[in-house]
Amino acid sequence: MAKYEKILLNNMEQPGYSGSLADYEQAGGYQALRTVLKDMQPDEVIEVVKKSGLRGRGGAGFPTGVKWGFIPKDHPGPKYLCCNADESEPGTFKDRQLMERDPHQMLEGMAVTCFAIGAQTAYIYIRGEFRLGAKILEQAIQEAYGAKYLGDNVLGSGLTINIFVHQGAGAYICGEETALLESLEGKRGLPRFKPPFPATHGLYQKPTVVNNVETMANIPHIINRGGEWFAAIGSPPKSCGTRVFCLSGHVKQPGNYEVPMGITFRELIYELGGGMRSDKPLKAFIPGGASAPFLTPEHLDVKMDFESVALAGSMLGSGGVTVMEEGTSMVWAALRLMEFFYHESCGKCTPCREGSSWLVQTLQRIWGKRGRPEDISILEELCGNIAGRTVCAFGEAEVAPILSTLRHWRGEYDALIREAQETMPRTKEIPVFTH
Amino acid sequence: MIFDRFTDEIKTIMSRYPVKRSALLPLLNLAQREEGFVSESAMREIAKILDLTPPQVFETVTFYTMFNLKPIGKFHLQVCKSLMCALVGSDDVVGWIQNKLGIGPGQTTPDKTFTLSVVECLGSCGTGPMMQVNDDYYEQLTEEKTGRVLDDLKRDGTSTLKTGPFMYPQPLAK
Known about the structure:
The structure holds 2 protein chains of 2 kinds.
Chain A: H1 10-13, H2 21-26, H3 31-39, H4 42-52, H5 64-69, E1 80-85, H6 94-101, H7 103-117, E2 121-126, H8 131-146, E3 162-167, H9 177-184, E4 208-212, H10 213-225, H11 227-232, E5 234-235, E6 239-240, E7 242-249, E8 255-260, H12 265-272, E9 282-286, H13 306-311, E10 320-325, H14 330-344, H15 350-367, H16 375-386, H17 394-408, H18 410-423
Parallel strand pairs in A: 1-2, 1-4, 2-3, 7-10
Antiparallel strand pairs in A: 5-6, 7-8, 9-10
Chain B: H1 7-15, H2 24-35, H3 40-50, H4 54-63, E1 75-80, H5 83-87, H6 90-101, E2 114-119, E3 131-133, E4 136-138, H7 143-156
Helix pairs in contact in B: 2-3, 3-4
């Protein structure tokens, strides 16, 4: 089904492509780096990326060129680029494929970015579990140094660009950009207050750009083919380019699918994904990873771009689309995600730290048929006191599953509580929470 | 001292960062690779190397889930339990391992070969249910495949069923 031109996944899908430097160069690799070093000024590169309309592919969707533009030009001292390869959002597995199958694509993107923002040192913060990905990246980096695409005097330009791989050690919160910087500095990955933003006070309090792997992978193509070319793809002007969406759950053909932004969920799930895995119809789906509110079959014709999904009451987020069939309990699904958020809460902010614990206990009681009628209002009150009252967006993320499942499938919660009320013994037993 | 054999590697690691403390996670990783877990003596040594206090090292270790503070089995079976894997049967995987090895989550086999844990999303949601064993991923697990992996690991120390560079779905042959 090669209906849509693939940009990021193009090389790796050619038969025999190994991701080696030789293969990448044969496919036209490192042309963009040559072009910017020979023919362009850093400001021009930033303008091209601004014109392309590229928005961050990690989940927040901030315009990339604008982010680069925030780096102070005349700042003395070092500037840094951090590539966020901490892919930990449940439902997302695109960066892993990009890193393991075509590492030079993102390395070239990082080199161009370093040139554009004036950084000499870049770190790839890769999650600790991606051991194979880290090994592949380190090999690719060695190849790039050997061919003078990295190091001192890159391609004879006199510029220095160094890229290092830095492995995490198991913490979802380190995908948040300021927590990533704290972790890179060797500390507990607790997010920082913003402002100040990493663009002015980032790694070691120096100007820093943090960009996702997929964002970096787009850069060589934008340089090679132009900002206008990229801006014409997808759903301009707000959602340009392609995205690699990650399909998972109860579909026949899960996996990574690169499509232009703006196709519908129906097309992704039923045409590309082969439809539901059994004769059970679709009951619910998550459009953008665990942090995105659940959507119903009514939303299947929503277009997959930032604005349309936001209007539908959710978010495009990381692009992880998870499909659930009829027969899946929405209370159970919310509980599974809540257990994830409770486990991954960094503990800095009281509403998130205490609230996630309370939420998961309450959900466990409801699911375990020990719920009480007042539990629903407890859930709602807790969620209202977490979202918007935390240092980072984890607070908003963790309440999304509960609030959206309550909104669309309130009956399931009520039914479980009713069942509990009818079957619970009439003793004053206090439920005990076990980890 | 456990790091005496690694002075060159440590120097290389520390040369990557302008601030010493940044080398903390790589050094802890090195310690765990060497001893199977992060021991108190390793933490004290690392503190000395990086000009930190031992509590500063310890507080960082406790934040990250991949560092083991106690020795575990030779093969750490980490089964993903997040929603996307749970939808396609990750709970069954835990059950299969429980039946075959007789251990539950958090437990180690008496011969110290296998430790079973349930962990959060490993970034393999399209090919679940799956597990990570030490450095390798084993995906699209069935009862038969899980059994074979465990047999391979016990017999050979490795298994050919581990996932290579990830691409899914595979492109159709042209």
